[in-house]
Amino acid sequence: MLDHDSSHRHECPVARASEVIGDRWSLLIVRDAFDDIRRFSEFQKSLGVAKNILAARLKALVEVGVFEICPASDGSAYKEYVLTEKGRELFPIVVSLRQWGERFQFAPHETRSVLVDNATGQPVMRMAVQSASGETLGPADCHRIRVTPDDV
Amino acid sequence: MLDHDSSHRHECPVARASEVIGDRWSLLIVRDAFDDIRRFSEFQKSLGVAKNILAARLKALVEVGVFEICPASDGSAYKEYVLTEKGRELFPIVVSLRQWGERFQFAPHETRSVLVDNATGQPVMRMAVQSASGETLGPADCHRIRVTPDDV
DNA sequence: TAGACTGGTTGCAATCTGCAACCTGCTTGG
DNA sequence: CCAAGCAGGTTGCAGATTGCAACCAGTCTA
What we know:
Two copies of one chain form a homodimer.
Chain A lengths: L12 H9 L4 H9 L5 H8 L3 H13 L3 E5 L7 E5 L1 H4 L2 H14 L7 E6 L24 E6 L5
Antiparallel strand pairs in A: 1-2
Chain A binds a DNA duplex (30 and 30 nucleotides) through helix 3 and helix 4.
């Protein structure tokens, strides 16, 4: 399976995140989970993915702690896949992908779906990288530094 | 190759974005581009990816308009792969992945890299989904609606 | 209690990936 | 200006991954 050998892990956090949700299906599974999909068969129906692939992905996502398996909320003996805190924190990633897709991968006339604030019905704000003081930063306004925590 | 047949495109913007950068390498190529990598051999060295795969990915990314091919900035006859506006707008996606990776995919003691504001040296603000009025929104605070632009 | 549904597993064919070898057009040292 | 080497690929092939279909064991329900 996705054998991202953890013995020589990447130092880059982007690469590590990509190991978890960087394949063809995992991200879409998480997206569906944000849309309150929880059951194996619901994921399969929504995504149209092969059952063996879905089973493998869900298993991997449970192993890394993005999902947890819970007893079904309808009282039956079946189980549900529910996002953990770690999984719910993927929300900004999914939304930034959504916003980019909306802007650049749709023709102007195409039907699409947009994300709106429950409270106001307004579309959510476009996500941006911000400085500590709240200014929007572009790629050229930032740089990476290496940090070695030495807090014994 | 990545045959995401455009005859039955997804309506979901997340899926459309995922078609572009949802594979094992494309996202990391873009990440490197934000780190000022431009040449084929530099990408190859940085990523350790097979040359045929890199060539295929760069070609696809040029075709969808994320990169453009420019003459080399050093005056040689070689070319460079430079992010377009569309490509630069992937920045929030890469940063949100980075921040999630930093928080959840590193042990506390591990060396990692973090993104800081050039101007202040401070780490950039954690990205969040915000309402039009600036409040942070969680997954439960939003919902999707379908929009069919009917502007003639 | 039979039949359908849930949540998978297994086998196999087709596709995709990555390695290595090769190739062509620049570029540079002598 | 010529040979050697580098940049930027392409091609062939073996192995890994994907997806389809068939099958199967529990669970539910009429």
